[in-house]
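Field reference: sequence -> structure
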Amino acid sequence: MGEYRGEIAIDRPAAEVFDFLSDIRNMPRYLPTVRKAAPSGEGKVAMQGEANGHPYHDEGWLKCDTGALRMQWGSDSKPDYGGEIAVQEAGSGAKVSLSMSLTAAPEVAARMQRDSGSVDHAMRQAMTRTLDAIKTACETPAEAPPRADDLPDSRPFGSSATLNPDI
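Structure field:
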């Protein structure tokens, strides 16, 4: 299982950034393969989207600790997948730390190896794109939400950095 970490500074108050990230409905704004995310019961989330030209649907769990500005998640169908976002005050803005644990499916790992030189390199790129997309989404004024085309791509060669069953 791979462990991946990254962080980014965001020019918005930490509580505001966490409120944005912990609202499941905002996930499609920073996770490009996700088309719809919605609660599906107590502490549960359902995700729908498209990756590599194939639609997917996955369910998982989501825990938000508003006091600690921390969100954790995992997939019901992939026990080796999970992640955490933590938001901290940082000067006049916030610092977002993202960590993920996952094992790429063999065919996805082979594609990442071929296209990027290694799974680790592809995942580091995906983490950077995801964090850049979060920054863009959080720093874009509410009256002018970004179009999906304008957000940095968080997919490592077509695979989402979230509850994507293809990873």
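Note: The longest strand covers residues 54-65.
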